């Protein structure tokens, strides 16, 4: 029977059970498939409460996205303007302007929400 996960032991058991379910070839309209979906939601709820993940700083988000795309940080010079501006932003000496946030969002696909956070 499915129930809210309250302890670390229950969490570990749920992870083990979900692993077992994922090893099967489940059809979408089966009881086990429904169990997998509900169990996933219960695990997600427990993890949000007990293992929160903080949002990255705008600088971390920029560096991560460049790494994902396989681009060097020098790529920012083309987006933000002068090389000194890129250096100041990556070192935290200069804040991103609204125009820079828009360009980073448009060109690199970094969510604006990640770029407007305090740092």
From TrEMBL:
Superkingdom of the organism of origin: Bacteria
Protein name per its UniProtKB record: Type II toxin-antitoxin system HigA family antitoxin
InterPro entries: Antitox_HigA, Lambda_DNA-bd_dom_sf
Organism: Pedobacter alpinus
Lineage: Bacteria, Pseudomonadati, Bacteroidota, Sphingobacteriia, Sphingobacteriales
């Amino acid at each position: 029977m499915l129930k809210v996960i309250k302890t670390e032991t229950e969490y570990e058991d749920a992870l083990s059970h979900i692993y077992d379910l994922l090893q099967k070839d489940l059809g979408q309209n089966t009881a086990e498939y429904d169990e997998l979906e509900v169990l996933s939601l219960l695990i997600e709820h427990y993890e949000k409460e007990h293992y929160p993940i903080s949002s990255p700083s705008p600088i971390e988000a920029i560096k991560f996205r460049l790494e994902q795309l396989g681009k060097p940080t020098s790529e920012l010079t083309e987006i933000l303007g002068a090389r000194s501006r890129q250096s100041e932003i990556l070192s935290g000496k200069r804040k991103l302007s609204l125009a820079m946030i828009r360009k980073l969002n448009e060109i690199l696909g970094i969510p604006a929400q990640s770029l407007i956070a305090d740092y």
